[in-house]
Design a protein that fits this description.
12 strands; six-stranded mixed beta sheet; Rossmann fold; alpha/beta; Glucose Oxidase, domain 1; globular
C-alpha cells in the first residue's frame, strides 16, 4: 500500500518523504522560555533508577539546594523501596511524573537521577495536558522523556544535571558551575556558551558557519543509546533541519560506531544541520580512541561535526534547551 504522507504525523514519515517545506527550520527563541522566581513551586521526581544506598542523602541535599534558591519543593518522589534497578514500580513512577506535569502551580519538574526506566512509563503517560508552562530538567535516561514531550504544549525540556547526583551537588568547582549555570537558565534564561572544536568540516567550509543556518537551528539530542532506541517509536528522534547534540558514557568505540551507523542507516543524518558531541565518557578502548572513530565516521559528511567537553556525564554538564538554538562559540 503506498505511503500517504498527509495521513501520518511528520514524526512517522521517513525523511525522504518529507517535503522541504515541512522540515522544522525555526527554533524557539530563548526569550520564549519561562522564567522562575523566588517562591515558585517545583517538583522532584524519580522516573528512572533509584538512589544507590550510599546516595540516599542526596535527595534531601537536592531539596535543600533548591530551597536555597528560594524555590518551594512541593512534590518529592513517592517513598518506596527500590524496585531492583528502578526507583519504584512503573505505575508509581508514572503517577509521580503525571502529578508533577499536571499540577496547576508547578513551574519546574527536576529529575533526581538517570539510570534506566523512563521508556517503561510512556504508555502510562498518554493524554497528559500540561496546564501552564514548566521546565522538565534532566539528562541521561531522561533523554527518552525529552523526546516524548518535545512537542507537548507548556513543557520546556532542559538537558541539564539530574539534581540528586554528585554532578550537581558535589563540593567541587565543576559542580558549583553546574549549579550556577542551571540557576541562571531557570531564573534569568541565560545559557552558558558552549565552546566547540571542529571534528569535521564539510567541503563548503566557507558557508557552514553562516549564522542563518545551523547556529539558528533548533536543538535536539541527548544520550546516544537512548536516541537510537527511540527510533521506530511514536516519540522517535527527528533531526531534519535541526542541530543534533550527542553524549554517551561507558560504550566502547565499536558500540559507538554501531549506534552512529544505526542513526545513519535510519536517515537521521540526511537533513541534519550539524552534529555536536559532548563528552563521550569512558568510551575509548585500549586500541581505539573514540576521537579517531568520530573523524573517520564523519569524513564524508556534508554538515559540520563539532565537539565540546561542556555537557554529558563528565564533571561538567552545562544546560541546553530542546527546540531552541544552540548557544555556542566555534574555536
Amino acid at each position: 500500500m503506498p505511503l500517504n504522507p498527509s495521513a501520518l504525523p511528520l514524526s512517522a514519515l521517513p525523511l525522504s518523504a518529507l517535503p522541504l517545506s515541512a522540515l522544522p527550520l525555526s527554533a524557539l527563541p530563548l526569550s520564549a522560555l519561562p522564567r522562575l522566581q523566588a517562591g515558585d513551586k517545583v517538583a522532584l521526581v524519580a522516573p528512572a533508577s533509584g538512589q544507590k544506598p550510599e546516595q540516599q542523602c542526596l535527595i534531601k541535599q537536592a531539596i535543600t539546594q533548591l530551597e536555597a534558591w528560594g524555590l518551594d519543593v512541593v512534590l518529592t518522589p513517592a517513598k518506596q523501596a527500590n524496585a531492583g534497578y528502578l526507583s519504584a514500580d512503573d505505575k508509581t513512577r508514572a503517577a509521580d511524573l503525571r502529578h508533577a506535569l499536571t499540577h496547576p502551580d508547578i513551574k519546574a519538574v527536576l529529575v533526581t537521577r538517570g539510570g534506566y526506566g523512563c521508556a517503561r512509563l510512556l504508555t502510562l503517560l498518554n493524554g497528559i495536558t500540561v496546564p501552564s508552562p514548566r521546565y522538565l530538567v534532566g539528562f541521561s535516561d531522561i533523554t527518552t522523556l525529552h523526546l516524548y514531550f518535545a512537542n507537548l504544549a507548556n513543557v520546556f525540556c532542559l538537558h541539564a544535571p539530574n539534581v540528586a547526583t554528585g554532578q550537581f551537588l558535589a563540593d567541587t568547582p565543576q559542580a558549583e558551575n553546574n549549579r550556577q549555570a542551571l540557576k541562571q537558565v531557570l531564573f534569568n534564561k541565560r545559557f552558558p556558551v558552549l565552546n566547540l572544536h571542529p571534528v569535521h568540516l564539510p567541503a563548503n567550509a566557507d558557508s557552514w558557519q553562516n549564522a542563518n543556518t545551523w547556529q539558528k537551528a533548533p536543538v535536539t539530542g541527548g544520550c546516544l543509546s537512548l536516541l537510537v532506541t527511540s527510533l521506530g517509536t511514536p516519540h522517535s528522534l527527528t533531526t531534519a533541519g535541526k542541530t543534533l547534540f550527542i553524549e554517551e558514557i561507558g560504550e566502547p568505540p565499536y558500540k559507538i560506531d554501531r549506534l552512529l551507523t544505526h542513526l545513519k542507516n535510519a536517515g537521521q543524518f540526511e537533513h541534519v544541520k550539524a552534529v555536536i558531541f559532548g563528552e563521550l565518557v569512558k568510551c575509548d578502548s585500549r586500541t581505539v580512541a573514540v576521537q579517531t572513530l568520530l573523524r573517520d565516521f564523519f569524513v564524508e559528511a556534508d554538515f559540520p561535526v563539532l565537539q565540546t567537553a561542556q555537557f554529558g556525564h563528565g564533571a561538567v554538564n552545562m544546560p541546553w534547551s530542546y527546540g531552541c538554538p544552540a548557544v555556542v562559540k566555534v574555536l
